Amino acid sequence: MPHALLLASLTAAFVALSACAGTGPVAQGDFAPAYEGIQTVLLQDDMVSFRVALQGARGNDDVEAYGRCAAAQYALIRGFGFARHVRTTVAQTGNTWRGDAVYLISAALPPGLKTIDAEVTVRDCGALGIPTI
Q: Collapsing DSSP states into helix, strand and coil, what is residue 121?
């Protein structure tokens, strides 16, 4: 029976992590946004808001990716390995896009479909040229 429990746990972890695969690469072709910074606001012990701004986003996905990268780096800085996306709001004024992304950070893989492995995400962000904190 312990093997069945372990297999179920690993399967659940794989499903949760594979849900992140849909967040795919941001940088494509001649896309060259200007990342204008990240503001971190601690809402609770494990809940953090990341306010980001960038010029030249192609849409909400680019803003969400910037917030995700900030959350991943923050989790690592605080000694945590995972984060779970709570919500992201996006607003556009002219060519400036702003986002407010809220994440729960944790040492263990949290429940939910919108979880990220902080170490993997930070590596991916670097490869895509998306800055972190």
A: helix
